[in-house]
From TrEMBL:
Cited InterPro entries: Cell_Proc_Reg/RNA_Proc, FHA_dom, SMAD_FHA_dom_sf
PROSITE patterns the UniProt entry points to: FHA_DOMAIN
UniProt cross-references to Pfam families, sorted A to Z: FHA
Protein name: FHA domain-containing protein
Source species of the chain: Bacteriovorax stolpii
Limits of the FHA domain: 23-73
Amino acid sequence: MSIHIAFYQGEMKLTTVELKKKTYLGRSQENDIAIDDPSLSSTHCMIEIDPNNFIQVYDLNSKNGIHFGGKRVASHTLLVDQRLYFGSHHIMIEKQFLTPEEAQRLRA
């Protein structure tokens, strides 16, 4: 199964990325995904596909955190149609890359 996530700034989609087992995100070019945003830490969060193929997002002690449902969270299991925010950006699972069975399993 390949899982893709879309990155947005506001409502503008910036890019779509296929996740690796562990994908690191932050300002630093050393991350798998580097985003030039001063509100992000150099290594802000890690996105992991767990053994059950769920997407886990972990804050890596960033200054401004990751947010779900308007609250800062240390980690979150990202499901289809959910938005997880960090800085002025958010991520969502890209549904068109999922089979119908995968999409159903990843629904809230």
